[in-house]
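Archive maintenance. Older records in this collection stored only the sequence; we are now back-filling the structure field for every entry so that each record is complete. The fields below show one back-filled record exactly as it appears after the update. Entries are processed alphabetically, and Aminopeptidase P N-terminal domain-containing protein is next in the queue.

ARCHIVE ENTRY
Title: Aminopeptidase P N-terminal domain-containing protein
Organism field: Eragrostis curvula
Length field: 719
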Amino acid sequence: MAMEAARLSPSLAAAAFLARRPPRASPFFLRRRHPLLRLFASASDSSGDGRAVALSSAELRKRRGLSSSASAGDAASGGDEKLRSLRQLFSRPDIAIDAYIVPSQDAHQSEFVAECFLRRAYLTGFTGSAGTAVVTKDKAALWTDGRYFLQAEKELSREWTLMRSGNHGVPTTSEWLNEVLPSGGRVGIDPFLFSFDAAEELKDAISNKNHELVLIRSLNLIDEIWNDSRPKAPEKPIRVHGIKYAGIDVTSKLSFVRSQLSENGCDAVVISMLDEVAWLLNMRGSDVPHSPVFYSYLIVEISTATLFVDNNKLSEDVLEHLQNAGVKIKPYEGILSEVERLAEKGAKLWLDPSSVNAAIVNEFRLSCEKYMKKKGKAARKNGDKGESSDELRAKGTGSQSGELNVVYRVSPVTLAKAIKNEAEIEGIKNSHLRDAAALAEFWCWLENEVCKDVSLTEVQVAEKLLEFRQKQDGFLEPSFDTISGYGANGAIIHYNPSPESCSSIGSENLFLLDSGAQYIDGTTDITRTVHFGDPSARQKECFTRVLQGHIALDQAVFPERTPGFVLDVLARSSLWKIGLDYRHGTGHGVGAALNVHEGPQSISYRYGNLTALQKGMIVSNEPGYYEDNSFGIRIENLLLIKELNLANSFGGVSYLGFEKLTFVPIQRKLIDPSLLSSLEIDWVNDYHEEVWEKVSPLLTGNARDWLWESTRPLLYESP
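Back-filled structure field:
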């Protein structure tokens, strides 16, 4: 699944705003910054002086020949009423703001969120997974990245201005606010939906125009206007993730975290990322579509651990599992009270400012300050001169806003989770083989149906793929919404077909299918692009160059401690030679029966992510090319990073490479062999031979015959 580079190296070092700022912490913190300050607006037009100018979605649709009725969020459907209701709240005495920012995330900085937290989608009508909406008293703008430009143009109503993130020439969200608001404006946010880093950066950025950042903790304004029509919070049960698949028991994982606390002089750590909680406790849930996680927080102390979760989701088995690991249960809403308790006892708290929300961090800082003042008053009341909080801070024993009682570092779970253990790797490999069998059966079926001129829509094809996967042992659900795009729809990088407007699959153009599955033992993600008729020379050349990039990355050998951005050029070089490129990252991490998008590692042209690729990590390899309003191409496999046994070891360092996890044929008719070297042809043939050897034992009948035909050797052709 193509992932915009910013989602994995969120600092967007190329972004103008961040480029002007020194980092707040070590480069590792640049990994996961909030999209708000890294998104660029863009333009589809320019002013006379060469500046880029952002256009409203209505104007964009007009220029593309789309009617306003094409928008899913058209004013006639109530989009303007939502903005009107939201703006009415601005003037309430207990709110009193001039602008409100609505991100895509929930309180845990999740990429995918429960339906009840789809606030930005509800407000704007734009259903892509990434984007930030900003509403002032008379303007409304939405920022999203290159994966969603075409989708946003179709879905936004005329009241919204589309800001094309990553394009050159228009302001960031903070710069835009500084431009459109009079000096001294008040910008409101829900602090639960912003990481502490993001909130602090926003606060600093808008202070240039004397604007104030207002943390509205008591209510979320979108929830207020959503009211009774808002979906209910998820209530599905949580399950234990067996040691057979997890590989390491909870007690050992907690011991590791506690050793990290001791080494860093901390008393406790707040774990707020949902996949980190699930991994650490060997538990899985169903609160978030496509991700086997559950809404919760976890605080680990030196001798205790407390899970904040809805107790109604816990079965007797889960309660016993937690009790055996020494984990206490408290209500989900009790997290702030517990943070306050830690402050009052003088605990030193480990917080990841790139993921822990601003509400939690600010609660701890304010509680520390309140505790110091209370302590000083008590000392003076008892006749002891005592020391003021200012004096304590001067001596280094106090804490203004709790700063000296906080260690800001990346979560100790993040890297441990990314490096898979032997049991996780075994489960991932097994799940990929079962997934490959399902895909072979699916492609065999689809090819036959298209050849018989059976009318099938993009949605029907995606539903049929789900049927084939559901037959496989251990299947749970898709790992994301299937991207089923025929022709021009394939050029929409994260296209999501709907029954009302999707296309039918034919034999006149390319068909791009990006899909994945959650199995009990692993998570899959694969993209293939095919043509059921006769591809054009242009399509074959573009496909072959994407394939060359895929091969180059797959064959990469690199020294340990190499960050992913160093390898990104390998995937793009062949496209660059003819002036082509793509607007997303080349590779993202993948969880072990967890999130399909996982950090901290990535492979992208954004050079802000300095996380080294390490043995045991999983990354995707997915270069592509997208010709707007014409076709899209992407080839994606998942790869396991492994240590190589080479003849030399210069400097005493280890060298790493990749092992394939995905085994599904790459359509040979789309390959132009005259563009490939003999080594590249050998790679294709060796890969297809391995596909046959691993997957054919799982197939019978027509599907096995299809696999045999699809893995025949590619012959070398002279240019």
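Update note: The mean pLDDT is 87. The radius of gyration is 26 Å.
Entry marked complete.
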